[in-house]
Backbone:
């Protein structure tokens, strides 16, 4: 259409050519290389899981908020230099606050921390424990979680990490009660007895509260990235105000059998530690 | 210098003649300032058309743009040009066989954010710098 006058002139510079199979594969390979990927990912998604699972939804909210900020910066910052304002370009802090409107109010969060302005990559991790195992050992309930942090892109360092679990509203049994929810790093497992644990974070909440609980697991995540063999997962336990252990499910904490959009997950924020150089092909 | 500028102004008043002039002079290897000036053009990269919608959550694609056109004298009258490019253009006039004209290239680039699954169904939100042309100029 390049030779046609009028409206088509506007589009005369568009590239209109169907790629041959070989060209298509080569182009895909080159773009994957630019994205820093060795091959095309093949995620194993449950039916409907792409848009209904909690972690992708959380990340999509973050993406949309970020895209909105980028558009605003592009529209208003045309004279701000080649890379635009560094604060908006490089960080995810601003939209991170905004996303809580769609994910429900956080009962606790790291949203005001300065680390978010430094992040250039955010990654969510699915819980790899196939089935909830509500352990009851020596009058103590707990639940286990495991996240594989061994496959993060090269040159990225964890600046912050959160474990997020959804708490539903519980009315019947514990009205007006408060719970203490504790998250531990599993240091060592022992057959037939309790594992060695390290307390990471605690929250005290009302039984009637509902929303995402956020626990800081930054130090543990860094440790796991450097030493994947030490990643034995997390344990979560719930206690009443008088110290009695409570089944996490009865306390309203959503597990594997809960809805997809309320499944627990971990989100980590990364900062590039080195310049990524693409190899010559 | 003045003559060149005047020629440029005269041509801009007669676009139809300009088109005829361009065509008729192509075979004569005429001065390339008849060609389109250096500017930003549309180029859309579609992740959907690449068949990646199963692992890229967002965006479906992005407007990358590209720069193309002639970096002809006088550069500073109608586009972003570096001081070096202006000097190089002058030297090109003196010695066209040795020193080429400046190149039309991006002067401002922006980042895009891509949201995608990895093999383990984890989700990655990553910012890739210098993926979108915001402005073109002569270098």
Residues:
């Amino acid at each position: 259409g390049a030779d046609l006058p009028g409206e088509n002139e506007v589009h005369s510079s568009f590239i209109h050519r169907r790629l041959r199979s070989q060209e298509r594969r080569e182009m895909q390979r080159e773009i994957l290389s630019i994205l820093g990927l060795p091959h095309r990912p093949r995620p194993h998604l449950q039916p409907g899981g792409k848009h209904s699972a909690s972690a992708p939804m959380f990340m999509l909210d973050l993406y949309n908020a970020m895209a909105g900020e980028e558009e605003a910066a592009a529209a208003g910052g045309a004279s701000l230099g080649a890379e635009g304002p560094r604060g908006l370009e490089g960080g995810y802090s601003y939209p991170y606050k905004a996303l809580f409107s769609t994910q429900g109010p956080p009962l606790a969060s790291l949203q005001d921390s300065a680390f978010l302005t430094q992040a250039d990559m955010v990654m969510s991790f699915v819980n790899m424990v196939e089935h909830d195992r509500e352990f009851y050992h020596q009058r103590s309930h707990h639940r286990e979680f495991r996240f594989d942090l061994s496959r993060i892109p090269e040159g990225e360092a964890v600046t912050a990490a959160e474990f997020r679990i959804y708490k539903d509203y519980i009315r019947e049994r514990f009205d007006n009660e408060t719970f203490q929810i504790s998250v531990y790093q599993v240091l060592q497992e022992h057959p037939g007895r309790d594992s060695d644990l390290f307390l990471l974070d605690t929250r005290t909440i009302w039984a009637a509260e509902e929303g995402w609980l956020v626990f800081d697991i930054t130090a543990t995540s860094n440790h796991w990235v450097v030493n994947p063999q030490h990643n034995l997962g997390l344990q979560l336990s719930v206690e009443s105000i008088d110290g009695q252990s409570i089944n996490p499910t009865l306390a309203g904490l959503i597990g594997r059998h809960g809805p997809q959009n309320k499944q627990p997950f971990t989100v980590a924020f990364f900062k590039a530690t080195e310049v990524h150089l693409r190899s010559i092909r | 210098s003045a003559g060149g500028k005047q020629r440029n102004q005269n041509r801009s008043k007669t676009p139809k003649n300009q088109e005829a002039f361009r065509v008729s002079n192509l075979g004569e290897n005429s001065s390339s300032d008849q060609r389109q000036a250096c500017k930003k053009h549309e180029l859309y990269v579609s992740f959907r058309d690449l068949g990646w919608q199963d692992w890229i959550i967002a965006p479906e694609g992005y407007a990358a743009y590209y720069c193309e056109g002639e970096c002809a004298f006088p550069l500073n009258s109608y586009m972003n040009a570096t001081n070096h490019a202006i000097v190089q253009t002058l030297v090109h006039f003196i010695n066209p066989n040795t020193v080429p004209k400046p190149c039309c290239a991006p002067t401002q680039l922006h980042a895009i954010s891509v949201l995608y699954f990895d093999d383990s169904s984890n989700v990655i939100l990553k910012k890739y710098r210098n993926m979108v042309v915001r402005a073109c100029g002569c270098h």
